[in-house]
Amino acid sequence: MGQENITHTFHIPVLGLGYSVDTPIKVSHFGISSVASIVDDEMIERMRKLHTLENGEVYVPIYSNEPDFRSRRITEYLNLMDRIVNKNFEMLRQEAFTDGSGIKRYFELLPERSPLKRRYLKMLSSNDEEEKCWIERYLRDNMQKGAIDVNIMSKVDKLNRDVHGEMLPDEYSDASAALRGFAESSLTSSLVLSAGMNPRLYNYLENFKDFYPDENGALPKKIILKVSDFRSAFIQAKFLAKKGIWVSEFRIESGLNCGGHAFATEGYLLGPILEEFKIRKQEMQEELFALYQSALLARNLTVNSRPVLKITVQGGIGTAEEDRFLLDHYEVDATGWGSPFLLVPEVTNVDDDTLKNLTEAEHDDYYVSNSSPLGVLFNNFKRSSAEKQRLDRIAAGRPGSPCKKKYLVSNTEFTTEPICTASRQYQHLKIKQLQEIQPRPDDFEAQLNLITEKLCLCDGLSASTLLKNNLLRSRENKAVSICPGPNLAWFSRVCSLDEMVQHIYGKVNLLAKGNRPNMFINELNLYVEHYKKDMDLNAQKLNEKKKKYLQKFSDQLFIGIDYYKELIPKLLNQTEAYREEMIGQLKKIEMDLRGYQPEII
């Protein structure tokens, strides 16, 4: 493994806008790191009021007509979470090691490979009272909180106007204001930047001293890049290193076997991507550090040693054996387990109806869609109330949604001011344009579906949080969007935090739906399915650029298949029968893919 974790070897990634918005309050005192989205400041402000009052503090509202309200709301919420987690952690640390105590639960949750867990077990088995007291003191002194990390989708970055309608400077854009909210908070944690590079946002990082080393060389606030391949990770990290900003972690996410927005890359599969990071990590660190040192010198700052650069991975992990293999074979520092925690009510905000639908769902209820107004593939759930509402609105002749929060406005096809493609306004105008085309296009219905498929994610991804916490106002939309990864189909019941952690570490098995293929096979199948769909969609209008893209995509899939042929014998923590079945699945996929090739030539 990479850096040794003294507590947990997994984290809980960001889950939608609201599903993990207060997860740190629920798990950080147990040493578990998690990520909260800081996109929806309206929902965040309501959650701030809820947790402020629950913790006996005085709530002072920040209204949307106040200067810099977005940034200030985020700062105050993060400061509140920091205070609550610190209080809960200190209370837990002072508890006696008695049955049912929080401190005992803290250590019972730890994996067997944790140095702290080994000391804890030694304390329990010792008959020497003096030794037990010494170990107990050691354990209390070395307990660690889980990180309260935050996430910004870099390109969700609308420019804003003041109350008089005047355009505000760039630093008041949505992403910049959220960044400032984190930078000015009391947290010592990380900002997770996802969904690609935003030069304006990356340049703005230079304005905050906490992203630079302090007098001891420590980074008060760190940067994590969520990435889907080595090349893009390296490009982004070099861009930042030249500014004196160190990337402390690359969080590698499967392009398609994940929740939320899906980025299919160009056929690059997770195994080969991890292999490249493993092989080239040292080379990358050295080049980045040289750029970083030069940039710091220009700012009259120095660092004596290279900062830590972690590699973690997430997306589709489903068993303890898969988790352990990723840690050991690829030497990653930690893994991310996201969608399965949607079935853990004490950790995430999923309303009762949606939770019931998730437990009863079948595999085909999870699908990759074009629902996102961002124009990026989006993991959708057929049983969601937002999907039902979308279809009901179409049936009633009123497709689209009212657009209130406007986080995803980007289209200027019909208007001077950007509007959202999921909005009723845009869909009305776009459908009217389509209907006026004469003669009517042969693919009229398909084009109509592409227009009306878009969902309002601003409301939908926050609604469940507001419903669960009784914060939804009487006339607000109750329709819930949820975006689990397809891996969740293999989990079928609500469980506790303890059960899910035990599943991750191999003490219990929560998988209850048939013979689940290995995560690498699952991802490969998703990529082949995506490739076929893309080919079928473009079969009649295959230009040279698209042809090259599809050819490269299929080439990468075959490279991945050859890589997995070499990898499978190394899966030594699986049975021989499991490896043989995996080889058979791989051969079947390869034959299927080869049979598809002539159609693109």
Topology at a glance:
Layout: E1 10-12, H1 23-27, E2 33-37, H2 41-54, H3 69-94, H4 102-109, H5 115-125, H6 129-142, E3 148-153, H7 174-183, E4 190-194, H8 199-204, E5 222-227, H9 230-241, E6 247-253, E7 261-262, H10 270-298, E8 310-314, H11 320-329, E9 334-336, H12 352-360, E10 366-369, E11 377-381, H13 385-395, H14 424-435, H15 444-452, H16 457-468, H17 497-504, H18 519-538, H19 544-567, H20 576-594
Parallel strand pairs: 1-2, 1-9, 2-3, 3-4, 4-5, 5-6, 6-8, 8-9
Antiparallel strand pairs: 7-11, 10-11
Descriptive report:
The chain is α/β, with parallel strands linked by helices and 601 residues long. The chain has three domains: 10-338, TIM Barrel, CATH 3.20.20; 385-481, no CATH class; 517-601, no CATH class. The strands form two sheets. It has an eight-stranded parallel barrel, surrounded by four helices. A three-stranded antiparallel sheet has the order 7-11-10, with no helix packed on it. It contains 20 helices and eleven strands. The two termini are 44 Å apart. The mean pLDDT is 94.
Beta-strand segment tally? 11
The radius of gyration is 25 Å
- As a percent range, the share of strand residues is 5-15%
Question: Largest sheet, order of strands side by side?
Answer: 1-2-3-4-5-6-8-9
At CATH's second level, what is the architecture of the largest domain? Alpha-Beta Barrel
Largest sheet: 8 strands, parallel, barrel
CATH names the topology of the largest domain as TIM Barrel
Query: What is the CATH level 1 assignment of the largest domain?
Result: Alpha Beta
Helix content: 40-55%
Discrete helix count: 20
Calculate the mean pLDDT score and round it. 94
Q: Which structural category fits the helices and strands? A: alpha/beta
- Extract low-pLDDT stretches: none
**Total domain units:** 3
Shape category: globular
Gap from first CA to last CA: 44 Å
